[in-house]
Design brief:
The complex is a heterodimer of chains A (about 475) and B (about 180). Chain A has 16 helices and no strands. Chain A is globular and about 85 Å long. Chain A has helices at about 20-30, 35-60, 75-100, 105-130, 160-190, 195-205, 210-245, 255-285, 290-325, 325-335, 340-355, 360-365, 365-395, 410-430, 440-450, 455-465. A four-stranded antiparallel β-sheet of chain B has the order 2-3-1-4, with helices on one face. In chain B, helix 3 (about 55-85) packs antiparallel against helix 4 (about 95-120). Classes of the chains: A mainly alpha (about 475), B alpha+beta (about 180).
Chain lengths: ~475, ~180
């Protein structure tokens, strides 16, 4: 193919793959019996999931009193976890949608797994507002359905209701986008399978045959879905930030929240993608498809968004001082030096300082450093949400109402449970579906495969020319 | 193409998309009527080469999207100005800025769901649907040109076979689908 590729651009597919080799490499993990490592991980994940489900059932049975929320601190770990999970989800859409619009070829190695991660993260996120309602069996009240109470409609002016629409739309669109991308790859697995697996994948592949016209429509659909998902993903975290920004709490009522939340979401999402991909590529032996070049690209995004988040923190501090508004000033003084100073410190250290090591190329390309950094960032972004929510609420306008909050074992259990849900789904996903988008990798092979492009390929080509 | 009656198909498998595209151009020159081309991945430039019209899916998407906008905005307007007007925080009943987030979300939702359903419907695909497959390797690494030979004379078939040989097809087979 005659795509213009810079000779110094690193190849994205290593190992001089052929089309058939790509199919083999990516399909085979779904065809082997699970490895002991997978089984062990699955047992741990299901154990966490079960514990989480038990805690959720206990919460529903007993009521929200099983949590340590109080009149002052009405949002604690639940909403912290909600925002954290939604944020994690955003990297998947960013990789698959925004990078598709920007024609970034490196997205093809990681988009499938990142989108799967999005869907599982949104499931975990949506759980929290649901159980936080207390009476989860009445959660359908958030939908504007014709009812016998008037009909009394929901409040369309409330950011919490916007959230209902944003999260459910986001989940639906992500799922459709992901699945439509999977259909041709399920067909590839189907055509290699026998017996029951063939029937199973035949069902999943929706009767895909690979007709030229279908590919044309498929590409058109992917592009438009990407075009719609891009503003959608920005709107979702903007609306999540409105939950805070439209309130009148000092420290929340700021216009910086939407961009700051979106940057933070992408930041934490990429960190989670790194955590997952580093393990996945190793265990499934996909190092030729998820290369160090991919990892470096994602680390650059982490560095950029981490720095944006850092600038946002400093801007908040500056504006609090510059506003001359004592309540706002106190809110930020309290965050940095109040009772929850340690979470502010954790946030600053993990989100702002630690990603700066990625200015050094050696660290950006180190798998070991990247893995630890990805964990740091996830912890840091969790702290960020905790700082915003619990620290701010703990010290409100009335000193007589000031309070402190520590989670109960039930709240911790539900959080562990969502980690369990997330990893259980992810582990099932890597067994059932091709983890890397097979068709998309094939489509970039000739412009990004190491036998066609990259410094090494160009050197060889030159040498061959000199021989002649 | 998607007729219910069985078609007798003569098809050739190629190993590379560039060879395939050359073959398609060659077929056009010879005036051979290609029934279908199958590829394992979206081949850049193939639709131009085959002379496929641009997909009109985006027009459908726009219509679905605008329907979503109207539905959301119209419904919220009706609820807050006609059906049950309530004042929230001293704002007007018809508080347009507050309607924007939900109008946007429903625009995206309608457009996406509508387009995906349209896509599967016009492609004749969906859960539980099985379409005939010429060769299992088409979804792996083979590029396929298929001719319909229902009413072809043996002379025509021979011409097609010669075409496949000439253009570098690895395999030529006949199948009824």
């Amino acid at each position: 193919m005659s795509a213009v590729v810079s000779p110094i651009r690193e190849p994205l597919v290593n190992g001089s793959k052929t089309y058939h080799q790509i199919t083999e490499d990516i399909c085979s993990p779904t065809e082997r019996t699970p490895s002991p490592a997978w089984i062990a991980a699955f047992i741990v994940a299901v154990a966490c999931l079960s514990f989480g489900v038990a805690c959720i059932l206990w919460t529903i049975w007993q009521g929200i009193g099983t949590w340590d929320l109080n009149r002052t601190i009405g949002w604690g770990w639940d909403i912290t976890n909600f925002v954290w999970w939604v944020g994690i989800g955003h990297a998947g859409t960013l990789i698959s949608a925004i990078l598709l619009l920007f024609r970034q070829k490196w997205r093809t190695g990681v988009n499938r797994a990142a989108e799967a991660m999005t869907i599982f993260a949104v499931i975990c996120a949506a759980l929290f507002p649901g159980i936080h309602m207390g009476r989860i069996w009445l959660s359908f009240f958030v939908l504007p359905y014709p009812n016998t109470r008037g009909p009394l409609w929901v409040n369309f002016n409330s950011p919490l209701l916007w959230d209902v629409f944003a999260i459910s739309t986001y989940f639906t669109v992500s799922l459709l986008f992901w699945y439509t991308g999977l259909v041709p790859d399920f067909a590839t697995v189907r055509d290699r399978a026998r017996g029951f697996r063939k029937k199973f994948y035949n069902f999943l592949s929706f009767g895909w045959t690979g007709k030229a016209k279908h590919w044309q429509r498929w590409e058109s659909l992917s592009l438009i879905l990407a075009g719609l998902a891009t503003p959608l993903v920005l709107s979702v975290h903007t609306i999540v930030s409105f939950d805070f920004a439209t309130s009148v709490i000092p420290g929340w009522h700021t216009t910086i929240f939407p961009p700051y939340f979106v940057a933070g979401a992408i930041f934490s999402g990429f960190a989670m993608v790194q955590t997952l991909m580093l393990i996945t590529r190793k265990v499934l032996k996909l190092e030729d498809y998820i290369t160090v070049a991919h990892i470096e690209s994602m680390n650059k995004v982490i560095l950029l968004t981490g720095t944006i988040v850092g600038v946002a923190y400093l801007t908040e501090l500056f504006i609090a001082w510059y506003s001359g508004y004592v309540y706002e000033q106190f809110a930020f003084y309290n965050r940095a030096a109040g009772i929850y100073w340690w979470s502010y410190f954790g946030m600053m250290a993990c989100n702002v300082l630690s990603p700066q090591i990625f200015w050094v190329k050696k660290f950006r390309r180190s798998i070991f450093v990247t893995f630890f950094m990805s964990i740091f960032v996830n912890i840091g972004m969790w702290f960020e949400r905790f700082v915003i929510i619990a620290t701010t609420l703990a010290r409100d306008y009335l000193p007589s109402a000031w309070s402190y909050y520590v989670p109960t074992w039930v709240e911790i259990g539900i959080f562990i449970g969502t980690l369990g849900i997330f990893f259980t789904f992810y582990l099932i996903f890597v067994r059932v579906a091709p983890v890397v988008a097979i068709a998309e990798i094939k489509s970039i092979l000739k412009s990004a495969g190491d036998q066609y492009t990259g410094p090494e390929a160009h050197r060889k080509k030159k040498e061959a020319e000199q021989v002649h | 193409m998607a007729s219910s009656k069985h078609n007798e198909v003569l098809y050739g498998l190629y190993n590379d998309e560039e060879v395939l595209m050359d073959a398609i151009r060659n077929a056009h020159k010879k005036g051979l009527d290609i029934m279908e081309v199958y590829t394992p991945f979206p081949v850049h430039g193939l639709d131009d080469c085959l002379g496929l019209e641009e997909s009109r899916l985006h027009i459908a998407g726009f219509i679905y999207g605008i329907t979503g906008t109207m539905t959301a905005f119209g419904f919220m307007t009706w609820v807050f100005t006609r059906d049950w007007p309530i004042i929230f925080g001293g704002k007007p009943y018809w508080s347009v800025p507050a309607f924007i987030p939900i109008s946007f979300e429903l625009t995206v939702l309608f457009a996406c769901v509508g387009m995906v359903i349209t896509f599967y419907t016009i492609c004749g695909m969906g859960p539980g649907i099985t379409n005939p497959i010429l060769d299992d390797r088409i979804t792996d690494d083979k590029f396929c040109i298929a001719f319909n030979v229902n009413n072809a004379s043996s002379g025509d078939v021979n011409e097609m076979k010669a075409f496949f040989n000439e253009t570098g097809a690895e395999e030529v087979n006949k199948k009824t689908i």
